[in-house]
Design a protein that fits this description.
The structure is a homodimer. By secondary structure, the first copy, chain A, is α+β, with helices and mostly antiparallel strands. Helices cover about 30% and strands about 25% of the residues of chain A. The relative contact order of chain A is 0.16.
């Protein structure tokens, strides 16, 4: 931990909060005694004005930062072990609520915060490095392991998070410890509950660590975290595997109320589903005979074929799905 | 690696630049097979306008980012092994020169870039997580290992980097592949060479990895990286060790020309030396009989005593040295 000037007190406070030995948070680098084996490392950032609107409660930022990182570990089948935080914020930013929420979420995932860097910045930029372990008896999930004949699955509904982003942009707020507050027009509409759930889905994604661990017990599974939208991330998966994919448009799971909410937001619901992004569920493939346990809420959305590229199949209609999503369809 | 939209091409380019298997840079998390043992992890950031002036060449930012992180590993006696980068920059920022310079510097240190996160941001914020190993047969260096009777050492001169920061603030520039350019008044002065070296010392610190490794072969050594100035970092070391320190003011090593340069910059040279910061040399203690090999350029600056706090001894004059440095002296 390096901490500018008056930050020593903040580090001391955080050390107490985390309840770990001073040894871990205190030297220039965290000193760790690691067992041999498979380890996974990832880094993700949350930047004010880019990943979340200004004015978001610091607690939500702290927890979201961890959630998006955990989703990356879920996508390779790892279990979180330890984390390092780089936090740059304006001098008067309420860092303690952010750090306390992050520390609580880390503890809930039995993950240690072992290092950090605190700095000043005109806007909040928080980057979390997360290191996880391969569970004993597990296999890594890789993007490149899809084979022709596999079935293609998603771990949850699509488009809801992107809708939530637009609801927030329209003026919704979710103060810590309170319900989601909607702008008047949405609050009075039949989509109010759908809109509230979309905001929660966007701000508090639930990384699919248990699903990732289950996939790691299979003989072969390819997986990727859906962060940049189905279209783009599926292209990444098929490119890494040297295969093609066919997506059944009718099978794509969305929350029931999404089309009406999208109409109120003056947005194309297909765009939300195919390219909205930040779904933070797993996109994965399994040999045809394998079906994930029902508790993970997975839905089969297509299949893997020989060749390359992604085809969207809508009844008898077939058309290429470009990485950019719906916008760029012919 | 997650990379927004058009970033896939950049990641592909970087993968080629690094010459590593796609496996390492490509899945949602880097998959690593690590041997058991001691590992050290640290994170440090470089933020435009905070850690360096706007307009600094991207190559220098990339190399400085690595150097300040390596200095943290040096302070615990670790050898660098792998790194993860979070880079947030304006859309039109020349990221390739920064990444290429960082990649080159990583390769020179036999360190792999295994993951990253690329995002947009109005100002450049680069955070590097660095993970290193305990060399075989080595011991960790810790802040808490100083004992009364030890001698106190620094690994190089003090104050030069802080002077360089002020020379940059006065308008100096160091374009990639060229000499340091000074503002007219400094360029015409007898301090021109001192000023140029100060800028280089500030922008291109040389982390003391070899010194850290040597200290790790000793039975007992305490160490800390001098990033926030001698006064503050020495207070951290003595607090962690539960001891006091006496610093011999006359022994503090500074470049010969520093006092004259400081006068031109209208700065107190004592302030630069005691509290200027960003020296990026090691501050360490050894039992009295032990002397570091001459090649590391170390200088004994005082001794460790029972008690607490830091005393500055100037001839027969003794006064407390507060963590804030010279400014706050009585």
């Amino acid at each position: 931990v390096t901490a500018a000037g008056g930050e020593d007190a903040l580090v001391d406070w955080l050390r107490g909060k985390l309840g770990v030995e001073g040894a871990v948070l205190g030297d220039d680098a965290a000193l760790l005694d690691l067992p041999a084996g498979g380890w996974a490392a990832t880094v993700d950032s949350q930047i004010e004005g880019i990943h979340f609107p200004s004015g978001l409660p610091p607690e939500r930022i702290g927890r979201r930062l961890l959630a998006v990182n955990l989703s990356d570990l879920a996508a390779v089948g790892a279990e979180p072990s330890f984390a390092l935080l780089a936090l740059a914020a304006p001098p008067d930013y309420p860092r303690r609520p952010l750090l306390a929420a992050l520390a609580g979420a880390l503890t809930a995932h039995r993950t240690r915060l072992v290092g950090g860097d605190l700095a000043r910045s005109p806007r909040l930029v928080a980057s979390l490095t997360l290191v996880g372990r391969l569970p004993s008896g597990g296999r890594w999930l890789r993007r490149g392991q899809a084979r022709a004949g596999d079935r293609l699955w998603v771990g949850g509904t699509l488009g809801e998070s992107a809708a939530g982003r637009q609801v927030l942009a329209a003026g919704a707020r979710w103060p810590e410890g309170q319900e989601v507050g909607l702008p008047a027009q949405l609050a009075a509409s039949s989509s109010a509950d759908t809109a509230r759930r979309a905001v929660i889905r966007h701000l508090a994604p639930e990384p699919q660590l248990a699903l990732g661990r289950w996939l790691g017990t299979r003989d072969r599974a390819a997986a990727i975290d859906l962060s940049d939208g189905l279209a783009r991330d599926l292209h990444r998966l098929v490119a890494a595997s040297g295969v093609a994919a066919e997506v059944d448009a009718a099978a794509l799971p969305t929350p029931l109320g999404l089309p009406v909410l999208a109409a109120l937001l003056e947005t194309d619901p297909h765009e939300l589903v195919l390219a909205g992004g930040e779904d933070y569920v797993l996109l994965f493939t399994l040999p045809e005979a394998e079906v994930p346990p029902a508790e993970h809420g997975c839905v089969a959305i297509g299949r893997i074929a020989a060749g390359q590229g992604v085809t969207l199949v809508d009844g008898t209609h077939r058309r290429p799905l470009e990485p950019e999503g719906w916008d760029h369809l012919g």
